[in-house]
Amino acid sequence: MDEKTDRCVFNADMLSRKTAVVTGASRGIGAAIAHRLCEVGANVVICSRSTESVSQTATSLETKGYTVHAIAADISKKEDVDTLIDETINQFSQVDILVNNAGITRDMLLMRLKDEDWDAVLQTNLTGTMYCTRAVLRPMIRQKNGRIINISSVIGLMGNPGQASYAAAKAGIIGLTKTTAKEVGTRGITVNAIAPGFITTDMTAKIPEEFQNKILDFIPLQYFGTPEDVADTVCFLASDAARYITGQTIQVDGGMVM
Ligand SMILES: NC(=O)c1ccc[n+]([C@@H]2O[C@H](COP(=O)([O-])OP(=O)(O)OC[C@H]3O[C@@H](n4cnc5c(N)ncnc54)[C@H](OP(=O)(O)O)[C@@H]3O)[C@@H](O)[C@H]2O)c1
Fold first, then answer.
1. Which CATH number describes the domain made up of 19-250?
2. Ligand 1 nearest-atom number relative to CA 154
3. pLDDT tens digit string along 79-98?
4. CA 186 to ligand 1 centroid distance, Å
5. Distance from Cα 250 to the centre of ligand 1, integer Å
6. Which residue's CA lies nearest to atom 30 of ligand 1?
7. Cα–Cα distance measured from residue 189 to residue 207, given in angstroms and rounded to the nearest whole number
8. pLDDT tens digits along 140-174
9. Which residues are known to be catalytic?
């Protein structure tokens, strides 16, 4: 078995009347998360840096009859994040679910790593996640309800040669997740992280095939994950079924790290 069916296993009204923001949703895991959240009834706001690609993703979801709003926003810029959340509230009057998914890699062995590449990865993956999280806290506290789901990575748990910046940022997301969970637990807000393993997207397509085969040796289930595997875990964490789960990091990795 190496393909997950795209069939949604959740009820179509599971998140009806909820508004979700998904960052980095023009393709890959973010697009699959946006699709799943639509399928379970949420209104979804999606963002990415490229107006064209995020609009295309929104149009394809709207064609299926879903309520989607596309915003071009670079989460590494505080002003863009403020606009993203302000526009979400203007459009839907609330923000119930935030999925911090946007992320980049600039891989290089630490000895040769350029300062600007380190800064870009930390600014997008970690600081961007913090900007988005901080921006939704006030509205979520007012609502006495909220779900924040941060996409980390197994690389943040185990490290990986050539990925010092990415590993540091993804490990930082886990610390941010736990701290935020402790700060807002009494306000009806849960904060969790997902650590995907190897998921087939544009990001992993860059990895040479020979190296991909080596990775497979470390995966007990013996196949790579799909964006839908991560999207389903997001749906679960956003649902009432996960109301007593906070501060956790859920691995979606076929058993790669244990
Ligand atoms: N694929 C994997 O195996 C894997 C494993 C573990 C964790 N993850 C994590 O899962 C997340 C999604 O990964 P993916 O594989 O789907 O990556 P991807 O295919 O490269 O997609 C990344 C998405 O993020 C957007 N993005 C990048 N920088 C942004 C920024 N500054 N502001 C707003 N949007 C931005 C991109 O759109 P634009 O280029 O238009 O901005 C795109 O929509 C990332 O956080 C990644 O680290 C992936």
1. 3.40.50.720
2. 6
3. 999 999 999 999 999 999 99
4. 31
5. 18
6. 74
7. 37
8. 999 999 999 999 999 999 999 999 999 999 999 99
9. 166
